[in-house]
Automatic annotation (TrEMBL):
Protein name according to UniProt: Putative dehydrogenase
Every Gfo/Idh/MocA-like oxidoreductase C-terminal domain range: 136-269
Protein species of origin: Cytobacillus oceanisediminis
Residue stretches making up the Gfo/Idh/MocA-like oxidoreductase N-terminal domain: 6-121
GO molecular function term, any single one: nucleotide binding
InterPro entries: Gfo/Idh/MocA-like_OxRdtase_C, Gfo/Idh/MocA-like_OxRdtase_N, Gfo/Idh/MocA_Oxidoreductase, NAD(P)-bd_dom_sf
Domain of life the protein comes from: Bacteria
Stored Pfam families: GFO_IDH_MocA (PF01408), GFO_IDH_MocA_C (PF02894)
Record-stated family: Belongs to the Gfo/Idh/MocA family.
C-alpha cells in the first residue's frame, strides 16, 4: 500500500469544511494539519481529527516538510501573500476561487507556481460534475445548432447566503456575489467557448461604501462574436435561482441551480435531462494523479488568471 499524501488546509470556513470532507472520503490522503485564525473554529475539528496539528499561523504549518499539498481557503485578499509563501516552500497548492484580489496578484501567482513546477489547481467543482459534462457535450456536439447567445442569471434572496455568513463575504473589498459565484460560470464559459472580451458592466452598490454590490448587468463577447449577458441581483422576494442558459438556433440548454439541466426546442417547453447519480472523477482524485506525475483534469492557475481578468472588468462600475 502506497504512503498517503499529507494535506494541510488553510481557512476552515464553510467551503474549507466541505473540502476537508471531500479529502476525508478519499483513502489516499491524510489530513495532517488545519490552520485558521479563529481558534474557536479550529476547536470544532479537534474531536473529528485528533491526530491533525492545529495552527493559527500558516507559516508554522508550512515548516512541516511531510505535508505535500496545501488547500488555501482564506478570504481572497490573503490569497496572494499566503500562496507565495506556499510556493516558496515548494508545496503543491489547491487555491479557492477567485485566484487573487487583483489581476496583478493573480499574474504573479501564476508565474511563481509555474517557475516552482508545483502542482497548482483551483477549486472549481463544477468541472467534475455530471451536469457540467453533459452540458458541455451537448453544446460541442452541435445539438443546439449555431450558438446565438449565452446568458447567466444570478438571483439571491439575500447576500450573504444563510449558510455563508462571515466577516468578508459581504464586503466591497473582497466579497459579493460577483466575486463569489460568477467565477464558476466564467470558468465554464471559457472552457466551452473560449475567453470573453469586450466587457461592459454596470454595478449597483449601496450607500455604505463598505458593502458589496446589490445588482449588476454585464455584456461580453465570445470568439466568433457570440454575445454574453450576465444579470444578477440580491435582496429580492424569491428563492435563490441561478440559470446558465445557451441559446442555439436548433435548441436551448439551461443549467438551473448548478445541477438541473433542461433542453428545449421550438416544438416543446423543455425536457429535464436525466443525469447519472455518480460523477466519474473528483478533484481529490485528479490532484492525486497530478502529484504522482500522471495526466490530470485540473483547472490551473493560468485558467484562474483568465477568470480573474474578466472578474475585475465585471466589478468595475461604469
Amino acid at each position: 500500500m502506497s504512503e498517503k499524501v499529507k494535506l494541510g488546509l488553510i481557512g476552515m470556513g464553510a467551503i474549507g469544511e466541505r473540502i476537508l470532507h471531500q479529502f476525508q472520503q478519499h483513502g489516499e490522503f491524510e489530513i495532517a494539519a488545519l490552520c485558521d485564525r479563529n481558534v474557536d473554529r479550529l476547536n470544532k475539528f479537534k474531536n473529528e481529527l485528533p491526530d491533525a496539528a492545529m495552527y493559527t499561523d500558516h507559516l508554522n504549518m508550512l515548516q512541516d516538510e511531510t505535508i505535500k499539498l496545501i488547500y488555501l481557503g482564506a478570504p481572497p485578499k490573503f490569497h496572494h501573500s499566503i500562496a507565495m509563501d506556499i510556493i516558496r516552500r515548494g508545496k503543491n497548492l489547491l487555491c479557492e476561487k477567485p485566484l487573487a484580489n487583483s489581476v496583478e496578484e493573480a499574474k504573479e501567482m501564476v508565474e511563481a507556481a509555474e517557475r516552482a513546477k508545483i502542482v497548482h489547481a483551483m477549486n472549481f467543482p463544477m468541472v467534475y460534475s455530471q451536469a457540467y459534462q453533459v452540458f458541455k457535450e451537448k453544446i460541442q456536439s452541435g445539438d443546439l445548432g449555431k450558438i446565438k447567445k449565452v446568458e447567466l442569471h444570478l438571483h439571491f434572496t439575500q447576500w450573504p447566503r444563510a449558510w455563508q455568513k462571515n466577516e468578508w463575504i459581504s464586503s466591497r473589498e473582497q466579497g459579493g456575489f460577483i466575486r463569489e459565484v460568477a467565477p464558476h460560470f466564467i470558468q465554464m464559459i471559457h472552457d466551452v467557448f473560449g475567453e470573453m472580451c469586450d466587457i461592459n458592466s454596470f454595478v449597483e452598490y449601496p450607500e455604505d461604501e463598505l458593502l458589496c454590490e446589490t445588482s449588476f448587468i454585464s455584456s461580453m463577447k465570445l470568439p466568433r462574436g457570440i454575445p454574453v449577458l450576465f444579470n444578477g441581483i440580491a435582496g429580492i422576494g424569491q428563492k435563490d435561482h441561478l440559470s446558465f442558459k445557451v441559446f442555439g438556433d436548433k435548441g436551448t440548454l439551461d443549467m438551473v441551480n448548478w445541477g438541473i439541466l433542461s433542453q428545449s426546442t421550438a416544438a416543446d417547453n423543455g425536457v429535464i435531462i436525466p443525469l447519472e447519480s455518480s460523477d466519474t472523477s473528483s478533484l481529490a482524485g485528479e490532484l492525486l494523479k497530478a502529484i504522482k506525475g500522471d495526466s490530470a483534469k485540473l483547472v490551473s492557475f493560468k485558467e484562474g488568471y483568465a477568470v480573474q481578468k474578466v472578474l475585475e472588468e465585471l466589478i468595475k462600475a461604469n
